[in-house]
Amino acid sequence: MSTAHDLVVERAESLDDAELADLCEATDAAIIEGGGFGWVDPQGREALTRHFRGVLLVPAIELFIAKLDGVPVGSAQLMRPPRNNEAQAFAAQLTHAYVAPYARGHGLARLLVTRVEERAAALGHRVLNLDVRDTQDTAITLFESLGYTRWGTHPAYARVRGQTVSGHYYYKLLETPRGRPLDIRARA
Ligand SMILES: CC(C)(COP(=O)(O)OP(=O)(O)OC[C@H]1O[C@@H](n2cnc3c(N)ncnc32)[C@H](O)[C@@H]1OP(=O)(O)O)[C@@H](O)C(=O)NCCC(=O)NCCS
Hints:
By secondary structure, the chain is α+β, with helices and mostly antiparallel strands. The chain has four helices and seven strands. It has helices at 17-33, 44-57, 108-122, 137-145, and strands spanning 7-12, 61-68, 71-79, 91-99, 127-133, 149-160, 163-173. Helix 3 links the parallel strand 4 (91-99) and strand 5 (127-133). Helix 1 packs across helix 2. Keywords: Acyltransferase, Transferase.
């Protein structure tokens, strides 16, 4: 991994026009290369700008931006459970994690996922869930190396260009600054 670059991951509460333009470019580049984001076809600046502005308005979603040498090149979203889901308030979801192809291999995705985990733990969540298409080999290697446990596979997880693709479901127990470790046991 190169260390000559400046790697930063920030939680975005707002984005200026220049940041949004870079983020939209990174997002379309990742979509064209083959995904991660739920989109299959590139969306263009206008639609993606609307998407990210909308994301910033949703209280249950936190947006994290990965920057390479100060330029937004990827993002991830931390989705918190709705307030009415008290029984699952301890769990959150990591979604839409990607880094543009031109910024890969520097360790940004590892940093992105780690920052989301730290934030989820700081908010009191004890579990982080995620799911990923079977075709996303790099992401699968990354998540497994970060300690995510695969608990299931959905054979009809996504449809991409007319093909049905399976997908894997993962969870990770988070270290929280306070509280007892989570007890996991089957119902007796
Ligand atoms: C998965 C993805 C985010 C990785 O981004 P990245 O910034 O290049 O990743 P990093 O540089 O942080 O590398 C993280 C790990 O991925 C793995 N990895 C990175 N590049 C790899 C490659 N070319 N081949 C195989 N594994 C690779 C390694 O395990 C690496 O860990 P290391 O620190 O031990 O080398 C990026 O490839 C991507 O956006 N893919 C498409 C979207 C996607 O699959 N998203 C996840 C589903 S939500």
